[in-house]
């Protein structure tokens, strides 16, 4: 059966086979800790068996809600930030036609808000929606995050003005904690349809819950196939063996880190994967960057970025390694035409598929980078489909749990995210922050 695979052959110039072998017990212990739930943050392991424990009835219910929103709305705004945004955005971008925004409208388009506090962004979104039929999926596990709360307040007001409060409440769906938070209270009072984010599923591990599944279903994609792929990977990632792709990836990246490779660049050669890189950066950045430790997660889109970051990667400080996400099959076929005059000198590749040229750019770059002191791993994906994206998501999540435990941190908390919030609340004079306001004013 086709599935995703990890190749770590091209790291051996930096870490030897023997060094990789020697790290197996450490990786096995981390995997055991994760599977037994005996490590730090073990109250946040609900994502581990989400693919197998999510009932079909929930997926059917999500599909029914999505179908109703698709019937009522040309646009649905998914409001959320961080883990309540990036997973859905990554999957939708990976599966969408790159030019759908410029084609005549067919079906329902998912837009995003609450992932920034850009005043112009919100103005332009509101202005765009003012004569459109739209709905809202508001997502916040805590139910108190400022960025989505602002966007929701503004878009809810607009929707209620456009179609009236009663109809607006039928086009708003809230995804939040079962009991806690302002959003839960608001949803109950306004009578919105709601979905629960389980207590034991953290934001950045929540894409395979209603958080990611509802926006993905609204965009018209097959969430059952996505979950099916995740189930395949759940079953394939439990053994302490190099046959387990999550084990192999987690082990190898920690070996590289210990060898002084402090930055990992996730590389794609398919522009549809840009937001997958953003999702991955959050997953690994928030999970591992703590206690003054952690691989810095970066991402590039090639070959675009070979003309911007390529120089640095080839010859800059030798503290980086790459993980290339390589998509084997493309959805469409485009062949480079022959040209009699050949003024551009391209006839030597006439008749080849564009993807063949892209694959040679990928291979040539990988060899050049290894030669230049940048070890790389390859994660091969048969195609960009719901099934394989489900596999890829679960693979990276499982590997992140193993890797975080190998690093010796709690991969499931994010204490550092609070620092900016405290300062922002103090600067905005939020009630309850009087002491912090005085303290921060003294620093200005
Ligand atoms: O991974 C995380 O926990 C965070 O990135 C959150 O998803 C993000 O801060 C948004 O939080 P919330 O869903 O509570 O609004």
TrEMBL record:
Signal sequence interval, chain numbering: none
GO biological-process terms attached to the record: gluconeogenesis; glucose 6-phosphate metabolic process; glycolytic process
GO molecular function: carbohydrate derivative binding; glucose-6-phosphate isomerase activity; monosaccharide binding
GO cellular component, one term: cytosol
Catalytic site positions: 286, 421
Pathway: Carbohydrate biosynthesis; gluconeogenesis; Carbohydrate degradation; glycolysis; D-glyceraldehyde 3-phosphate and glycerone phosphate from D-glucose: step 2/4
Catalytic reactions on record: alpha-D-glucose 6-phosphate = beta-D-fructose 6-phosphate
Record bears the keyword Nucleotide-binding: no
Keywords, alphabetical: Cytoplasm, Gluconeogenesis, Glycolysis, Isomerase
Superkingdom classification of source: Bacteria
Subcellular location: Cytoplasm
Enzyme Commission number, as recorded: 5.3.1.9
TM stretches of this protein: none
PROSITE patterns (UniProt xref): P_GLUCOSE_ISOMERASE_1, P_GLUCOSE_ISOMERASE_2, P_GLUCOSE_ISOMERASE_3
HAMAP family per record: G6P_isomerase
Protein family: Belongs to the GPI family.
Function, in words: Catalyzes the reversible isomerization of glucose-6-phosphate to fructose-6-phosphate.
Protein name stated in the entry: Glucose-6-phosphate isomerase
Organism: Candidatus Amulumruptor caecigallinarius
């Amino acid at each position: 059966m086709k599935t995703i695979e990890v190749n770590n052959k091209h790291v051996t110039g930096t870490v030897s086979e023997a060094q990789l072998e020697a790290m197996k017990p450490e990786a096995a212990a981390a995997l055991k800790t994760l599977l037994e739930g005996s490590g730090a943050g073990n109250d946040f392991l609900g994502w581990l068996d989400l693919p197998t424990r999510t009932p079909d009835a929930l997926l059917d219910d999500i599909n029914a809600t999505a179908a109703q929103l698709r019937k009522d709305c040309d646009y649905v705004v998914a409001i959320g930030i961080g883990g309540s945004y990036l997973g859905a955005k990554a999957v939708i971008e990976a599966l969408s036609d790159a030019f759908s925004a410029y084609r005549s409208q067919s079906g329902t388009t998912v837009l995003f808000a609450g992932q920034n506090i850009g005043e112009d962004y919100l103005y332009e979104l509101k202005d765009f929606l003012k004569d459109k039929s739209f709905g809202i999926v508001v997502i916040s596990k805590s139910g108190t995050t400022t960025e989505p709360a602002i966007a929701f307040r503004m878009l809810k007001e607009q929707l209620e003005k456009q179609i009236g409060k009663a109809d607006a409440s039928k086009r708003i769906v809230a995804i939040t904690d079962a009991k806690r938070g302002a959003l839960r209270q608001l949803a109950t009072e306004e009578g919105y349809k709601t979905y629960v984010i389980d207590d034991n599923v953290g934001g950045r591990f929540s894409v395979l819950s209603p958080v990611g599944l509802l926006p993905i279903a609204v965009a018209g994609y097959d969430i059952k196939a996505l979950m099916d792929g995740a189930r395949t990977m759940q079953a394939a990632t439990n053994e302490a063996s190099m046959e387990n792709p999550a084990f192999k990836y987690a082990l190898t990246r920690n070996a590289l880190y210990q060898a002084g490779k402090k930055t990992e660049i996730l590389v794609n050669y398919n522009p549809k994967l840009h937001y997958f890189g953003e999702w991955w950066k959050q997953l690994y950045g928030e999970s591992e960057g703590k206690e003054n430790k952690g691989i810095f997660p970066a991402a590039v889109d090639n070959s675009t970025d070979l003309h911007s970051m390529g120089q640095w990667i080839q010859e800059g400080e030798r503290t980086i390694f790459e993980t290339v996400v390589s998509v084997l099959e493309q959805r469409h076929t485009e062949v480079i035409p022959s040209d009699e005059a050949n003024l551009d000198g391209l006839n030597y590749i006439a008749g080849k598929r564009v993807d063949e040229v892209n694959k040679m750019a990928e291979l040539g770059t990988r060899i050049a980078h290894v030669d230049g002191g940048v070890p790389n791993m390859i994660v091969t994906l048969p195609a960009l489909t719901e099934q394989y994206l489900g596999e890829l998501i679960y693979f990276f999540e499982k590997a992140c749990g193993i890797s975080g435990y190998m690093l010796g941190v709690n991969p499931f908390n994010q204490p550092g995210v609070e620092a900016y919030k405290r300062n922002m609340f103090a600067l905005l004079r939020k009630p309850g922050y009087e002491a912090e306001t005085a303290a921060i004013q003294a620093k200005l």
